[in-house]
Amino acid sequence: LAGGQAASAWTHLTDAHFMSISARTAGFNVLPMEDLGPGSRFGLMLLMLIGGSPGATAGGIKTVMLAVLVLSVIATIRQRDETEAFERAIPDSIVRKAAAIAVCMFTLIGLATLALSMTERARFEVIVFECVSAATTTGLSLGLTGSLSPVGKAVIIVTMFLGRVGPLTLFAVLLRRAAVKRYQYPHEQVMLG
User: Fold this and answer.
1) What is the number of other CB atoms lying within 10 angstroms of the CB of residue 84?
2) Residue 137 region, left (φ>0) first, then alpha (ψ -120 to 50), else beta?
3) At 83, which helix (H) or strand (E)?
4) Closest CA relative to residue 139, chosen from 60, 54, 39
5) pTM of the predicted model, to two decimals?
6) In whole angstroms, what is the distance from residue 6 CA to residue 20 CA?
7) Are 155 and 116 in contact (CB under 8 A)?
8) What's CA 164's distance to the chain center, in Å?
9) What is the dihedral of CA 54, 57, 60, 61, to 10 degrees?
10) Residue 1 pLDDT > 80, yes or no?
11) What pLDDT digit, counting tens, does each position of 95-141 carry?
12) CB 38, CB 53: distance < 8 Å
């Protein structure tokens, strides 16, 4: 590559690297978000959903939770009774908790998207991006947040609050020891497909 092209390629690479990290944690951007293409926006939404590692202040469903869900799918495809990683079994209670938190996050994003779709005049892609950013408390925006109606602003505020506090509260509730049951229901097979 010529000198200018190599510098440009290096700049693009470092910008992409910074944005991929920032989308999972901080919400800083190095270029105008409106200039990103649909593929880049989709990739940023995925990274915002994944978030950081457990114990970090980043939002999202967390990297380990995603890994547990992926390993659960792999175990199901392989017809294994247990979810496994590195020659260890992951308890079903952990897999269920990860699935519950992921479903709650997707439900929150879906409801916020529905609410903003009814109150705001914007492209659907922009609304989804703003809702994912709010639910994962990332802070990235495609410019819609500043022009929201009062109802739209309330939706984003509630989404941000539930996105930060909701999964933590749900996780705390799920971590509590359940009362010991003295009975057990009979098992039933359910056809899934």
Assistant:
1) 15
2) left
3) strand 83-85
4) 60
5) 0.81
6) 21
7) yes
8) 11
9) 20
10) no
11) 998 898 899 899 999 999 999 999 999 999 999 999 999 999 888 88
12) no
